[in-house]
Amino acid sequence: MASTKSRRIWPRASLAIVLLAAGSPGIAADPAPIPAAGQAAAPADLRLALLAIRINGIDQPDPVWVLYDADALYVTGDAARAWRLVLKEDDTRLFEGETYLRLDTAEGLVAGLDDATQTLSITAPAALFMPSSALLSGRTDGPMTRSGIGGFLNYDLSAQTASGASSLDGLFELGAFSGAGTMGTGFIAGTGNSGDGRRSLVRLDTNWTIDDPARLRSLRIGDGVTRGSTGTGALRFAGLQLATNFATQPGYLTMALPTLNGSAAVPSVVDLYVNNILQNRQSVASGPFALTDVPVVNGSGDIQLVVRDALGRETRVTQSYYAAPQILRRGLHDFSYEIGVLRRNFTRASFDYGTPILSATHRYGVTERLTVEAHGETTRKMQATSMQVSALWPAVGIFSLSAAGSHSDRGGG
After folding, report:
1. Domain architecture of the chain: domains with CATH
2. Secondary structure of the chain: what % helix, strand, coil (to 5)?
3. Minimum mean pLDDT range among 80-84, 255-259, 303-307, 394-398
4. What is the value of pTM for the model shown?
């Protein structure tokens, strides 16, 4: 039985390689044309062969033309991209109008040739492959549909009898909507509980809201509530309010979710476990990979990544996490600006308004682990301001540092 010879080319080695005898099928020895500027011409001893390719033990579907000489191997850029290999472009050869990149000088790459099977075997570390990523949040922006025209009525009724006295009360919300926005009003009505049959009707909030899903914000005209902050509470008012409204895009994620990084020398399957529960299974190509927006629950926990290749070899990576809605994604803004007049005796009087107010709150995600916030509000008799910095320490929790100050007719603090 004839023996099969196998040769190996080591990076930057001067070992002579005999691929095929001159004149064998699959070899072209025609002279190369004059190269373009910046490209080296192919020496006379460079030849071309059509070879089967095996990368990290995985046979590739298509043979590839390989340019070679005694101690160098070259492949086209298209072939390298098809294999997802990252090759340097500082050593190229022009052959028959095609540019070839040197293969065997890549750091950590080993190439071996089997003369009998005409197969070029390549062993390359994962770092030499192009990186890939997968988004696990599952959120996609679907097409926006224009609102129709309609209306709604919500109600909640309550009746009770005690000690000879009875009452019937109700909470109502009436509204209409169209492409121009939503107009709504709420009120409470009842007979009271004194038994004398007295009836009451008190208006609650009345406003017109215009949503802007593309910018994740809403404009409200009418009654509303300011956004409180450190040292200040939320206040009811009537006027204008422009604020972010993440609910206009259901499923939008405001908090930073964990990202896991790994690598695979050959195409593999990745299993993702969150708190020992399988959450996702992904197929990844050779090379570094990143799984972003890993779905986790609020609070602390553990994430385990299991990488399994075609040969059944496993690599396990465990990482602790801490997720909190108080921490915004990097570059995300969350704001609320209000101007109007304060409302008094809410639920007891329908039209009791008083002091003018100006209020502003703005939060910003500086990094995936750091969020800053500033707040200020002023009326004729009171001014208040505050600042807060919130930092996430993975696997530990959130640390916040805040400062607030105020001034009124009674003094400052």
Report:
1. 6-126 (no CATH), 150-251+329-412 (no CATH), 256-323 (2.60.40.3110)
2. 5, 55, 40
3. 394-398
4. 0.70
